[in-house]
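Annotated sample (chain length 348).
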Amino acid sequence: MEVSKATLQKAVANNIISEQQGAALYHFFQEESLHTPSFSFTHILYYLGGLIAIGAMTLFMNLGWEQFGGAGIVFISMLYAAVGLKLANAFASKNLIIPAGICATFVVCLTPLAIYGAQQWLGLWPHDNTVYRQFHTRIQWLWLYIELGTLIAGVIVVWRYKYPFLVMPIAVTLWYMSMDVTEFLVSEYDALYAHSFELHALVSMYFGLLMTLLAFWVDIRSRHTADYAFWLYLFGVIAFWGGLTSQDSDNELSKFGYFCVNLLMIGIGALLTRRVFVIFGALGSCFYLGHLASTVFKDSWLFPVALTAIGLGVVYLGVVWQKNENKITKKVRAALPKAMQELLEKKA
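Output written by the structure step:
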């Protein structure tokens, strides 16, 4: 829970802490919040400015840059990267962690442009109409070299600066790679052309699952420091859930299995305190219930009644859980590995 000034004032009024201790705690929490992303106006300005700068060199890149040629693109990218690193170091020296992380992330986001320019400069880029601005809009296997280079650069910069926001371009690149790897497989094997959509969905699902497992590993490893797993969880769950939802099945048992997986995602999200699992798990559950209402029990007046009873049962289950939460939680956590116990303690 978030501790506000009003909460501390209530603690003072109830003689839990003194007025001096309340003021000291409030000052301490304010200092700590400077290094933790929050919905404050200062942080909004940080991220808005940073995303505008990153977007200018990625999503909003226009064809005008093509006139500089490969060598020019590499030189300009290196110049921008030098400025970004200079700013990151300057902010870090002043203990401004969030703007330092944004500037370091800007440098990683320049890597695809620099690699594209280098390939053009060395004559390795295919002579077709494909240009850099399509990197974020078209699925093509030839982006794989750019993505691998970006991953290497991202890992190096994360190792050097250790800012959580730096994981964002790595997670996005892994997400892009899952789609481009599938395109590579489709282009290599003509027999797969007829099933390209199913293949995309399948690769997305398994790639997302691997990314989510990687996020969990990172979560365990960084349990005593910052939240490095957020972006990996976000794009891993998106890729996994998107691939899972795109699977084609006329089997009701398979559809029920889909519903169970989404319920499991909600449970995992509650356990790890990761909203992305809960959001997509709830969406998938609603899709399945909508399927039951519109197809399986289309003309049944008992279905809404049964669904209402189930909903009220879930509410009652919540009441029972609240009464026994501490007892159940202690027993379950005692059976988990120590690293997992520490992670859940931190989340709690």
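Annotation: The chain has a mean pLDDT of 83.
Annotation: The radius of gyration is 25 Å.
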